[in-house]
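Replying to the earlier thread about multi-chain prediction with a worked example.

Input:
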Amino acid sequence: MPRIALDAMGGDHAPDNVVEGVLAALADGPASCEILLVGRTADVAAALDRHGGASSRIRIVEAPDVIGMAERPMVAIRGKRASSVTVGVGLQKKGEADAFISAGNTGAVMAASRVLMGLYPGVERPAIGAVMPTVGKTVLFLDAGANIDCSPRELRGFAHLGAVYARDVLGRTQPTVGLLSIGEEEAKGNAAVKQAHQLLKTETVPFTFLGNVEGRDILDGHIDVVVCDGFVGNVVLKFYESVARLFTTLIEREMEESVLTSPAMERVFTKLDYSTYGGAPLLGVRGVCIICHGRSSARAIKNAIGVALRAVESHLSQHIEADMADRGAVA
Amino acid sequence: MPRIALDAMGGDHAPDNVVEGVLAALADGPASCEILLVGRTADVAAALDRHGGASSRIRIVEAPDVIGMAERPMVAIRGKRASSVTVGVGLQKKGEADAFISAGNTGAVMAASRVLMGLYPGVERPAIGAVMPTVGKTVLFLDAGANIDCSPRELRGFAHLGAVYARDVLGRTQPTVGLLSIGEEEAKGNAAVKQAHQLLKTETVPFTFLGNVEGRDILDGHIDVVVCDGFVGNVVLKFYESVARLFTTLIEREMEESVLTSPAMERVFTKLDYSTYGGAPLLGVRGVCIICHGRSSARAIKNAIGVALRAVESHLSQHIEADMADRGAVA
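Result:
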C-alpha cells in the first residue's frame, strides 16, 4: 500500500487544510493508501480532532520544528533538522514513505529533496513542473522557477523529465513536447533555446518533439509539455495570476450579482485557479515530491494526494531513472 | 499641423480598416492633423470611395509595392524600395511626415525604421513597447519582442526609453519603472537582469526606479513601465492572448447566451483585447513609428492615430534624444 507523507505544518492554512484534504482523499477514493502526517504531534492531533478524523490509515510522525515561508532554504534545512520538511523528505530516503507533499517553503522543500534524496544520474538539475488548465487537456509547464539561466543541456533534460511525467501521471501515452520560444522556426529564440532545439531534434527521444512553440500556444490544449527556463517559467506563471486577477476584477465590476454568484461563473473561476490542480511535481530527485501553493485549500491538498498516488503507482521514479540511463547510454 | 502617415496596405484587413480608422479619427477629434495614406493609389482611392471619405486633410502617397506579412524583413525592404513600408518610413526622413503607423510586417517596419531613420546616439537597440490594460491605469511593457538576448546596458536603455514614453504619451508625470524578475530582492534574476538592476540603481534617473517586479505585478495597475528582454516580452504578450482565449472559451462554454451578449460582457472582452489600445511604439529610432497588430480593427487604427498625435505633440522624439544625451554625459 503506497505511503504518502504530508508536511502538516506547511502553508498558510496548516495544519487544518492538510488534515481536511487528507480526510477528503481517504473518504473519497477507492484508492488505498496510508497517510503520514509530519509535524508537531499535538497540533496535528488537535486538527484531526477538530475535523473528526480518526482513521487507521493515518499516522502522525513527530517533527517539532517548523520552517517559515520566508526562511532561507539552505540555512533553514541545515538549522532545523527536525522540521516537518526535513523529516518528511527523509522518510523516503529511509524507505518509510513513497511520496512527500508540502505546501510549505518551496525553496526549503527543494533544497531538502536535493540534499537528502539526491538526483538520478544524468539529471543536471531538478525541475518544478506546473500543471495548468487549458481549453482542452491540462499542460505540464516546466521549469516553473527552480532553475535560472539554464544551459541547452538542462532544457533538454526538462523535456525528458516532463515527458515521463506526462506519460505516467497525466496519462498521455505519446506525449508531445514543445520548446517555448518566440517563433516556430528553429532559428528563432535566445541562444540557449536555439541550441536546446538542436539537441532535441538530433537525438532519438521517447516522445514527440514539436519543436518551438510560442506563448500563445501554451494554453491551447494541444501540447502535453512546454519547456522553458525557470526565469521565463516563473514570470509566465506569476503573470497568469495577474491576468486571472484582471479578468476577475473586470467581471466583478461589470456583471450583476446574480451572474457573479452563479454556478456557471463558479465553474469558470475554479477552472482558472491552477493552484487547485494538485501541486507541482519536483522532477529529477530520487523519489516523489509534490510542491503545493502556500495558499492551498483542502481541495488542493486532496488533489495533490491523488497526484502523488498516481506517481507512485505508475512507477514515475523508476521510469525517470530508466529514461536518464537510456540518455546516458546515447549521449 | 502634425502630418501622420499610415501604411494603407499593411495588415490583414488593409486598406479598408486603415481608411475607416482614419475617417473615424478625423470625424471624432478636435485634434487637427493631416493624414498621408501610403499605398497603391487606385486601391486606396477605391477604399476611400467605399467608405464615403473625401477630406481635404487626407492625401494619398503612391507606393506600388506591398510587403507580405511573411516576407523576410531585410530582404523585403531592400528588394521593395517602393513599398508602402519603405516609402512611409522614408517620409519622416524627408521631412514630409511626423509619424508613421503600420499594421504590416513588423520586422520590415522595424528594419526600415532602423535603416532609413537611424537611431538616436546612445540608443543601443530600439525597443517595441506594448501598452496593456490593467485593473487600473495602463502599463507600458517593453521590450515586446524586438531584442533577444539583451545585455544589461540594453535593458537599462529600455527603462529610459519607456519612461520618456510614459511621461509624454501616457501622461505619467513621474513614471515608475520596474525590472521584470523572479523576486523583489536585487539578488533575484538571471545574470542580465541582476546587472541591469545594479546599473539602474546606481545612476541618477529621471524616473522612479522600483527595482525588481514580478510577473504577478505586471497588470496590477501600480507600475507605469515594466522592462524585460524581448524573449520574455514576446512570450508574455503571446501568453496573454492564450489566457484571454482560455477565459473567453470558458465563459462561452458556461454562461448563457443572454450573459454572453450583454453590454457588460462586451466591455469585459473589449478591455481584455490589448490590440485595441493603439499600437506599439518603436522607441529609439529618430522619429515616431507606431506598430499595430496585423489583425487591427478600424478602432485600433483610430486609436493608433491618437497615440501618434500625442507622441508628435508632446515632442517625444526630442525628449528621447535629450534623455540619451544626458545619459551619454554621465555614462
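Residues 19 and 49 of chain B are 10 Å apart (CA to CA).

Feel free to reuse this layout for your own posts.
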